[in-house]
């Protein structure tokens, strides 16, 4: 029998990094305040200061250094910490890491992992609360994981480090304390394989990152009202497993897409558009997007609550989707 | 530390090394001259930025490196891989957008890369190559090799953020990275005198706690001596160095570019005649008795033939199949969404 432990999302994630570092000497870990555990407990003392490296505030410089190290035989893992700080490294992420394999005609590979945490809803205000997955999904050349559970974050982090391509892992700060019983042994979750987090028959909810938890809360509540919700978590945005999403939509004919990011051009919008395009004749109702409004994330808690996607938003959207009468496609 | 004066004494160089230096400079000049001609015929799509005038700085630096050492460059891009020893045919084919191009037609003039000679890539983004060279140096050090990385950049990049972040990171990490500034005096048309409140790029090294050197970039041997010293220090674990080579581009920022004049005719005349790095190096070789004028002329003819051959290779190389646009995105490919 496989040994398991009940661990948090953050423990599962950092544990996977430590395990990969023990397995593969070419993996090293850099981040601001890393050796001081400011962003979570990491067994730094098990590794040399070279391999667990605290950094000065030079996002463009150290991400670029990661690109150069990755091109020349190492496997850097860089914690950019707050996902907003990706903007300070934008050129190296978007113009270099994402494109240099392509632009060199395949002469280089760039096995670089960048960790970005989305801390929204904790009175951080707009410089520390973006859910900025979409701009990077719109950058061909990056693989993007959006783990939503301790089990998934462990397996996806392991895969990310073993990938020969640049990977961004968007961690959802609202999930860091979530606990789950997961296997102690290493395991890898392949990219591009969505997970049906809950089976149902009436409405499909496709949710990403922290929205998966909201979708599951909504599904539980709706079950009492006799609405059976299927929750699909794509787990990676690039590559994207449309097969699993499409199969669910074909079964239910109704879909709600939930994304914690602002609505316009969000990943959720892309999912809704793709579902509409590919499953139009299976849909009994128009897809509904649940997303944050297009505002910078505010500071004061009542303002935050007003703009943050919550389980009630999902519940209402599912009820609407379930109630809508089939019209033209019936 | 300053090293100036044409033909700084370097007794350690063999005749063959000196001749190879001349060959590489000539390859750059004749290759670029041919690229200019090909662009006029319409066979070369997109912009080109020639290295003509920079040959002494580039080859002086490259010849101080081993074949295994890493190098990053920038948009004035043809000279660096040529200086590092890359064969001309695939470079020329890349300029023409051919499938036999070194980057298979995915990069073009500004983005030549040839990893077989340690070239990790030129860059269309000013300053972007510096952090990458820091990472290559870090990697060389962490993997226990004695390789070094050299980053070519222009004076314009010295005012961009990545320059400062890179120098600082390289210094605190003591990585074997050499920052090599080809200071040609102008960022496109903007004079360095207006762009910086200090006199030199090199003096900025002090702020990051690293040694620096200023050299005459038109004097290949002076450049070679300065870079060799930096390489030796880097290999011995002594960390990074900033080197500023004063040079001049003989042509416009980019071919076919028009602008209001920003360089005086006298200035251009002075540099392109009195300060030609190839002409002065050739004279130096004759003075040293390395080769006769006749031998050097034959050497130049041989390089011209290499460039002819590169042009032939490039012209005969097929254009890429359109669907090759979907290759080389990832090392572990995924389904490309949105393919028509």
Describe the fold and architecture.
The complex is a heterodimer of chains A (330) and B (340). Chain A has 330 residues and is an alpha/beta fold. Chain A is built from 11 helices and 14 strands. In chain A, helix 6 (150-162) links the parallel strand 6 (143-145) and strand 7 (167-172). In chain A, helix 8 (242-252) crosses helix 9. Chain B has a 7-stranded parallel beta sheet with strand order 1-8-9-5-4-2-3, with helices on both faces. A two-stranded antiparallel sheet of chain B has the order 6-7. Chain B is built from 11 helices and 9 strands. In chain B, 54% of the residues are buried. In chain B, helix 1 runs antiparallel to helix 10 and helix 5 (129-142) packs parallel to helix 6. The longest helix of chain B has 27 residues, at 15-41. Chain B is of the alpha/beta class and 340 residues long. The N and C termini of chain B lie far apart (59 Å). Chains A and B meet through helix 2, helix 3 and helix 4 of A and helix 5 and helix 6 of B.
Percent in strands of chain B: 5-15%
Runs of chain B in which pLDDT lies below 50 for 5 or more consecutive residues are: 1-8
Give a short account of the largest sheet of chain A. 7 strands, mixed
Beta-strand content estimate of chain A:
15-25%
What is the mean predicted local confidence, pLDDT of chain A?
Answer: 96
Number of DSSP helical runs of chain A: 11
Separation of termini of chain B? 59 Å
Number of strand elements of chain B: 9
SSE string of chain B, helices as H and strands as E? EHHEHHEHEHEEEHEHEHHH
Strand order of the largest sheet of chain A: 3-2-4-5-7-6-12
Give me the strand/helix succession of chain A: EHEEHEHHEHEHEEEEHEEHEHEHH
What's the total helix number of chain B?
11
Largest sheet of chain B: 7 strands, parallel
